[in-house]
């Protein structure tokens, strides 16, 4: 019965996107031998770079002190290089964070502060990491998600395409990202129901059609994109090692980004009943009302409550899904690093592992990533640099560092001059001596998270009137109550920016109208992260002297 409905729905052409994806998936790779007579080179002058980007991975891993999360391969990687314990993204959402690390420039510099801006429109001639390496004799290639969405900078950053691989007959097709028929059905039914109610355009443009938020299916790793992309990255690596050219290989893993879908064997690594849930579930006391949204992105799943709180059982299930996804991508990282070792090039390859931002799994009562707080801005970050980190491998750095530091670091490690536009600092001194202190604070920003969570752009008018309307009204009421006569929807939607600065001891978040940066801030939050690591209380009002000092430091170092 279900299959009949499913086929009927399919025949209505409801899922072109996914069919297209599957065509890619089964595309037969025509194997051609490009025989190189240069032979294998073991002693290249310039090192290769394996650049592993993980989507929405928070710093909750074995090697970051978690007793719950199973991440043996990342833990091993950390023991082979230097782990940064206080690394921060520049904006806790995919597009801006990725555009920033890849260009080595801050989100405002490239004017990418939401998911719908292309840095090439704003800074057409800015140089990206792979582009710079390509211009300096590197082969540059990626699989999966390195840049966000459609802004892949195909022509300028990359010298070649990744190898497409053939997967076996035991890999099922997915629809809506789901492998199980009942989940595919739930996705299609939900999509049709929503389109009938709100119109096809609203649903498509706001990405509101989903199936369940989680899936546990007994399928091979290659059923889902990360498993496939890892195979593709390994095949590409093996092809590139036939040449003498140094290479930059980006492996962009899509999990643990929503939906929390992973093969069953990774779910089986956890006992759901013993997974702890968040205990600090309140927004910061006296915190900014525009600082937290209402978990809209997670709520969009077909099986999720649209306005109600999440029960403890649901929270355990969601965490279970997130952790299964972490173990799934961890296994892909293990395969990739093993393939690098098998290729004979491990000793001449820099490995960078990073995530574009963290994620709140119920902490502060919030499920999502769009904040200026510690949990969402802090990221796991590990560098293995042969010849540099060998003597200090396994050490961990407590220095404050930023993803914008990656570009200058890679320049130093490859012996290339740093392009002039770079806004970060090389981390090579810290890689050589991980006990070094920070030389600067770390900066993150986010425009009015409460009113922009979804894609970091102002909610579109149809989105406001679709099923999230009651939550959006709740958010606006909170902001109006706190901000009084400063409230103006247009201002808060379009122009308010939260600037976060993390120092050794504090996090300050200065909320400003971007049009008037020299005016008195609209609101200030101050957290004592040394004594209040969960950022439970805004202590700005009682500490005007510290606020003044940190504001001065911010004005001096950020601008
Ligand atoms: Ca992301």
UniProtKB/TrEMBL annotation:
CDD domains: iduronate-2-sulfatase
Bilayer-spanning residue ranges: 21-40
Cofactor field: Ca(2+)
GO MF, one example: metal ion binding
Highest rank taxon of the organism: Bacteria
Keyword Calcium attached: yes
InterPro entries linked to this entry: Alkaline_phosphatase_core_sf (IPR017850), IDS (IPR035874), Sulfatase_CS (IPR024607), Sulfatase_N (IPR000917)
Record key words, sorted: Calcium, Hydrolase, Membrane, Metal-binding, Signal, Transmembrane, Transmembrane helix
GO CC terms, sorted: cytoplasm
Coiled coil start-end: none
Keyword Nuclease: no
Chain ranges of the Sulfatase N-terminal domain: 47-415
Similarity comment: Belongs to the sulfatase family.
Protein name, per record: Arylsulfatase A-like enzyme
Provenance organism: Mariniflexile fucanivorans
């Amino acid at each position: 019965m279900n299959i009949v409905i499913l086929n009927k729905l399919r025949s209505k052409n409801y899922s072109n996107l996914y069919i297209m994806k599957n065509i890619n998936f089964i595309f037969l790779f025509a194997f051609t031998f490009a025989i190189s007579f240069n032979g294998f080179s073991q002693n290249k002058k310039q090192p290769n770079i394996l650049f592993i980007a993980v989507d929405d991975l928070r710093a909750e891993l074995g090697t970051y002190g978690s007793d719950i999360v199973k991440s043996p391969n990342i833990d091993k990687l950390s023991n082979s290089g230097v782990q940064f314990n206080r690394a921060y993204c520049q904006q806790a959402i995919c597009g801006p964070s990725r555009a920033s690390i890849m260009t080595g420039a801050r989100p405002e510099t490239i004017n990418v502060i939401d998911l719908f801006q292309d840095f090439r429109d704003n800074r057409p001639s800015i140089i990206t990491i792979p582009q710079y390496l390509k211009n300096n004799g590197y082969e540059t290639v990626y699989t999966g998600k390195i840049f966000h969405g459609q802004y892949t900078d195909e022509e300028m950053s990359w010298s070649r395409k990744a190898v497409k691989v053939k997967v076996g007959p035991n890999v099922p097709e997915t629809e809506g990202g789901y492998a199980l028929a009942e989940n595919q059905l739930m996705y299609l039914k939900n999509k049709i129901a929503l389109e009938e109610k709100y119109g096809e355009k609203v649903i498509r443009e706001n990405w509101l059609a989903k199936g369940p938020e989680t899936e546990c299916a007994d399928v091979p790793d290659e059923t889902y994109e990360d498993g496939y992309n890892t195979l593709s990255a390994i095949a590409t690596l093996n092809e590139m090692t036939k040449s003498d050219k140094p290479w930059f290989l980006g492996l962009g893993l899509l999990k643990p980004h929503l939906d929390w879908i992973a093969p069953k064997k990774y779910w089986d690594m956890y006992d759901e009943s013993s997974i702890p849930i968040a205990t600090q579930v309140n927004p910061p006391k006296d915190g900014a009302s525009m600082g937290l949204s209402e978990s809209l992105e997670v709520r969009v799943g077909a099986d999720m409550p649209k306005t109600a709180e999440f029960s403890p059982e649901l929270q355990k299930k969601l965490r279970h899904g997130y952790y299964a996804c972490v173990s799934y991508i961890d296994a892909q990282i293990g395969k990739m690093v093993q393939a690098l070792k098998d290729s004979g090039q491990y000793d001449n390859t820099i490995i960078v592992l990073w995530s574009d931002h963290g994620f709140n799994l119920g902490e502060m009562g919030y499920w999502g990533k769009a904040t200026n707080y510690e949990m969402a801005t802090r990221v796991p970050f590990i560098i293995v640099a042969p010849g540099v980190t060998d003597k200090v491998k396994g050490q961990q750095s407590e220095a404050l560092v930023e993803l914008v530091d990656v570009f200058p670091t890679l320049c130093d490690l490859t012996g290339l001059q740093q392009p002039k536009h770079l806004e970060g600092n090389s981390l090579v001194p810290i890689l050589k001596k991980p006990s070094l202190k920070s030389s600067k604070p770390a900066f993150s920003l986010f425009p009015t998270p409460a009113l922009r969570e979804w894609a970091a752009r102002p909610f579109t008018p149809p989105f406001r009137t679709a099923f999230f309307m009651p939550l959006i009204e709740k958010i606006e009421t909170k902001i109006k109550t706190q901000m009084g006569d400063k409230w103006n929807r247009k201002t808060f939607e379009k122009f308010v920016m939260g600037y976060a600065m993390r120092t050794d001891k504090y996090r300050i978040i200065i909320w400003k109208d971007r049009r008037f940066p020299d005016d008195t801030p609209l609101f200030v939050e101050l957290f004592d992260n040394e004594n209040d690591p969960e950022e439970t209380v805004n202590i700005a009002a009682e500490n005007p002297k510290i606020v003044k000092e940190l504001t001065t430091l911010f004005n001096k170092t950020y601008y």
